[in-house]
């Protein structure tokens, strides 16, 4: 299967670099580009891409708002120059299927696209540990406007079972579905069923939200 990707960034040079990197992959195709969030929104609805790579700071509609509007229906990987915890947190809350820094490099960019399609959301390693530590108790960094990000709720909507908590901890450690299945001696299908139940009980939009809950709650 060819993964169809839409690029959304107001920097033409960045879009060109992404296209070169992604189109060089045998299983990835860039289907179009957008220079602002409104254009990306329209193209997403028309082209139905598998993954959208969205910059945070774009004219007309920023990447976070674009993710809020599309995150429930599309896999949006947020890519940014700005290493701020508030942005990461808000992207997760909006339903992002990954969060990358632009300096992460070509290998991580392609891995993030493939991970989004597989349901294994990826966050740049440079910020993962710091983010999770902050979610477990520290105060988030503030962006230029000085507004702190809202913390995710610590308690689930419905209590998780012991097995579901175990799976949530493994997700927080960065384990894939296959790795969780091997660790717990269960099938990959059973893992998916458990994850679906965990997401429902936590009100999490994806496995990044599960990881955030696990770290904040100390599960």
Short description:
The protein has helices spanning 12-23, 37-47, 63-70, 85-94, 106-118, 125-135, 162-172, 177-184, 188-202, 207-217, and strands at 3-8, 28-34, 51-55, 75-80, 98-101, 122-123. The protein is α/β, with parallel strands linked by helices. It is globular, with a radius of gyration of 17 Å.
Task: Explain what the structure shows.
The protein has ten helices and six strands, in the order βαβαβαβαβαβααααα. Helix 3 (63-70) packs parallel to helix 4 (85-94) and helix 9 packs across helix 10. It has a six-stranded parallel beta sheet, with helices on both faces. The N and C termini lie far apart (37 Å). Strand 4 (75-80), helix 4 and strand 5 form a beta-alpha-beta unit. The chain is α/β, with parallel strands linked by helices and 219 residues long.
């Amino acid at each position: 299967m060819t993964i169809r990707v839409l690029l959304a960034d107001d920097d033409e040079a960045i879009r060109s670099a992404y296209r070169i990197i992604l189109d060089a992959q045998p299983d990835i195709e860039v289907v179009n580009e957008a220079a602002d969030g409104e254009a990306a929104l329209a193209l997403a609805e028309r082209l139905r891409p598998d993954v959208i790579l969205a910059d945070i700071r774009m004219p007309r509609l920023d990447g976070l708002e674009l993710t809020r509007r599309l995150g429930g229906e599309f896999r949006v990987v947020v890519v940014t120059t700005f290493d701020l915890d508030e942005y990461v947190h808000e992207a997760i809350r909006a339903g992002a299927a990954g969060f990358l820094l632009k300096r992460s490099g070509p290998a991580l960019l392609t891995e993030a696209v493939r991970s989004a399609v597989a349901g294994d959301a990826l966050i740049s390693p440079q910020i993962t540990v710091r983010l999770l530590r902050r979610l477990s108790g520290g105060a988030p960094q503030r962006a230029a406007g000085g507004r702190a990000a809202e913390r995710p709720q610590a308690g689930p909507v419905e209590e998780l079972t012991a097995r579901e908590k175990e799976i949530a901890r493994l997700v927080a450690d960065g384990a894939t579905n296959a790795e969780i299945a091997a660790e717990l001696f269960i099938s990959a299908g059973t893992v998916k069923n458990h994850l679906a139940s965990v997401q429902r009980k936590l009100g999490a939009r994806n496995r990044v939200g599960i990881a955030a809950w696990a770290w904040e709650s100390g599960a």
